[in-house]
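hey
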């Protein structure tokens, strides 16, 4: 039953491998200790059993059974919460859940993700919740909704910020959730603690390891705790202290290898010497280079979206300030006319604790909407509010301006920008890369990234030693064709089992072996449409002879004993019968090709380019970008030494490199489109020298940007067409 539910939940929610691994680990824990879901259980005995199931588990670290799932940032911990809840309800009838957030940002995000018809709804695909969606109770409405009967909801999910239940509050007063409510007749906290099936899910669980947090959660008396974090350790004066209750550990290095997150890279200028610049100059250079990277990334994302008919992703840049005063100064600078002619005025938000009331609400609203293409924000300045739980996919450039050691810079910086906008790597380097602009800390970050103990290098795969008591069985799924010829090359039990009335046509081991060789040779021809246009072409004499020859040669080399039998096998006869069976069990999929006939002409219609996303800027020096995982280097050069008579030629020369663009046929259009780009750069108030630098530096990128828009204006004309 539980296996079926795990498979169902995994399939419907399209879980990634580490998410499914975590769900299976939860199932494994419950299967090994069924009493774990009963209010009256022996917690110590459960721990002893689970220690043998999970090598890293040594203590629950709480008064109740609590299991930690350590998954790298960007893998999808919130969706895993949805999978946990779905599984526990469908397989074990659990109906009450308490989801805990460490701060206001994550609290608001969780409410949105658990609300139906939102972009990241965690239960999308779970049919049981489509009709009766879960009842969502928050720290803002629990006094009204908390115990109100709702016949349309199958389960209740409470979402609270830790500050709402923490027992240590100012003035010695108990938090509101623990106070007597006339409407409820008791405190809501006591109501929750009395529920017999309350399961606690802790997002960013490393935030609940202080004494007050542990005490508050123990008082809640949940049936089971499920902890999710990307950092399964607490900091101490002696260094990191690992959690003792980890059952799944999927570190960042594995997530990067598996392609679930962006590739982080550190950025500087070629031959940059920090000692030759003042602190203010270094800050200005880093900000300006960050903008140049941001604008180049914006063009790459626009081009990729147009090429693949996908929604456009709007990138943004994150600037890490020293304090709120510094953040305000940065905001003033980057919105001024001295910073790229004031182009980013109204496109920057400052996120820190200096705001309150309506200003704070506006700040949070804009921050949560930063992924929207219609929201204008392109730069976010923050001090210390976005260290975790901020799940955005369009952060591509980070400029840290706060002093920190290299490890902290890596962990806190890349954690916010690793998520991929399209859910997977695209193969386009700039679309798959997160840039950390760190001119003054470049070598320090590289050294730390290459430290074997750094999260970028840590990989852990634990394999249990085989036990002599383990019983194994091999299960192979074989095709109906294998059943008919007999002698499948797969061992073990065959599913589906052959029908009693459908016996193999070849009885002896020799004939069955030859038939398997024939099938293997026939399968090689499926990608040779010139030779075998349809499956029936396999019966042609020339094809049959080639198959017979190949099989005979294989038998002569490795199966001589088959010919030493009293009745040697007839390879030609077996090949003919096997091919006939293959044809009968094959459904041909036609490949339709429409070919123009007679005189054919083609071209592109004149049109006006959409240049709203093209805001490239010249660089003072070459920019060096080094991948933190592979140490591969790429360069964004400031000048490649190519000089053209007129600026349009930079783009035209790059455009005619495309095979379907003929200079003779399209010269007028190419110069018109290139002229639009040059005029756009002039409108950005760039000088002639700066325009030439931008065009020389970015001409392949600009040409690709134009070419993707030309595709919508392509025309072709022929006398007739033939299918």
């Amino acid at each position: 039953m539980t296996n079926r539910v795990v498979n169902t939940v995994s399939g419907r929610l399209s879980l990634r491998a580490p998410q499914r691994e975590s769900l299976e680990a939860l199932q494994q824990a419950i299967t090994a200790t069924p009493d774990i879901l009963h209010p009256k259980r022996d917690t110590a005995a459960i721990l002893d059993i689970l220690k043998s199931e999970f090598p890293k588990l040594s203590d629950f670290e709480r008064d109740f059974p609590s299991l930690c799932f350590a998954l790298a940032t960007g893998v999808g911990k919130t969706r895993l919460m949805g999978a946990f809840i779905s599984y526990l309800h469908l397989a074990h009838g659990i109906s009450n859940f308490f989801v805990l957030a460490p701060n206001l940002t994550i609290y608001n995000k969780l409410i949105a993700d658990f609300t139906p018809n939102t972009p990241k709804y965690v239960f999308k695909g779970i049919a049981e919740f489509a009709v009766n969606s879960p009842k969502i109770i928050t720290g803002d409405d629990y006094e009204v909704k908390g115990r109100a009967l709702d016949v349309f909801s199958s389960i209740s999910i409470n979402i609270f910020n830790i500050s709402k239940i923490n027992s240590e509050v100012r003035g010695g007063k108990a938090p509101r959730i623990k106070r007597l409510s006339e409407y409820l007749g008791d405190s809501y906290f006591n109501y929750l603690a009395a529920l017999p099936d309350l399961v606690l899910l802790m997002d960013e669980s490393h935030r609940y390891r202080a004494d007050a947090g542990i005490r508050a959660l123990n008082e809640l008396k949940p049936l089971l705790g499920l902890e999710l974090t990307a950092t399964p350790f607490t900091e101490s004066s002696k260094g990191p202290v690992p959690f003792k209750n980890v059952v799944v550990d999927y570190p960042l290095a594995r997530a990067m290898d598996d392609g679930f997150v962006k590739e982080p890279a550190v950025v500087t200028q070629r031959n940059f010497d920090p000692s030759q610049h003042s602190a203010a100059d270094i800050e200005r250079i880093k900000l300006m280079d960050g903008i140049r990277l941001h604008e180049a990334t914006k063009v790459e994302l626009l081009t990729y979206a147009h090429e693949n008919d996908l929604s456009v992703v709007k990138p943004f840049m994150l600037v890490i300030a020293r304090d709120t005063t510094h953040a305000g100064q940065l905001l003033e600078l980057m919105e001024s006319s001295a910073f790229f002619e004031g182009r980013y005025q109204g496109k920057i938000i400052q996120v820190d604790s200096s705001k309150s009331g309506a200003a704070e609400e506006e700040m949070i609203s804009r921050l949560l909407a930063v992924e929207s293409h219609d929201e204008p924000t392109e730069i976010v300045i923050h001090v210390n509010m976005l260290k975790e739980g901020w799940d955005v996919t369009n952060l591509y450039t980070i400029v840290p301006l706060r002093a920190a050691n290299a490890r902290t810079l890596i962990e806190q910086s890349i954690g916010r920008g690793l998520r991929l906008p399209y859910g997977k790597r695209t193969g386009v380097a700039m679309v798959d890369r997160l840039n950390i602009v760190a001119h003054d800390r470049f070598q320090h970050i590289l050294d730390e990234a290459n430290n074997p103990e750094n999260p970028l290098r840590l990989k852990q795969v634990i394999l249990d030693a085989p036990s002599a008591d383990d019983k194994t069985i091999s299960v192979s799924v074989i095709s109906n064709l294998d059943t008919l010829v007999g002698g499948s090359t797969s061992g073990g039990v065959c599913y589906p089992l052959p029908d009693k009335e459908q016996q193999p046509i070849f009885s002896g081991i020799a004939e069955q072996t030859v038939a398997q060789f024939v099938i293997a040779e026939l399968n090689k021809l499926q990608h040779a449409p010139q030779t075998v246009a349809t499956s029936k072409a396999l019966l042609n004499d020339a094809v049959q002879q080639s198959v017979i020859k190949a099989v005979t040669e294989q038998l002569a080399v490795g199966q001589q004993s088959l010919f030493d039998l009293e009745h040697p096998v007839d390879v030609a006869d077996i090949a003919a019968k096997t091919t006939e069976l293959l044809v009968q069990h094959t459904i041909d999929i036609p490949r339709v090709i429409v070919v123009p006939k007679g005189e054919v002409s083609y071209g592109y219609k004149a049109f006006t380019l959409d240049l709203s996303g093209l805001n490239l800027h010249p660089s003072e020096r070459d920019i060096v970008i080094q991948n933190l995982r592979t140490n591969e280097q790429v360069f964004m050069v400031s000048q490649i030494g190519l000089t053209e008579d007129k600026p349009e030629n930079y783009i035209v020369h790059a455009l005619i490199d495309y095979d379907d663009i003929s200079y003779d046929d399209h010269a007028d259009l190419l110069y018109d489109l290139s002229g639009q780009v040059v005029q756009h750069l002039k409108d950005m108030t760039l000088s002639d020298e700066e325009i030439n630098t931008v065009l020389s530096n970015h001409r392949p990128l600009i040409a690709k940007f134009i070419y993707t828009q030309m595709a919508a204006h392509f025309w072709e004309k022929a006398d007739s067409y033939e299918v």
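Confidence is low (pLDDT under 50) at residues 461-466, 472-478, 488-500. The first strand starts at residue 66 and ends at 71.
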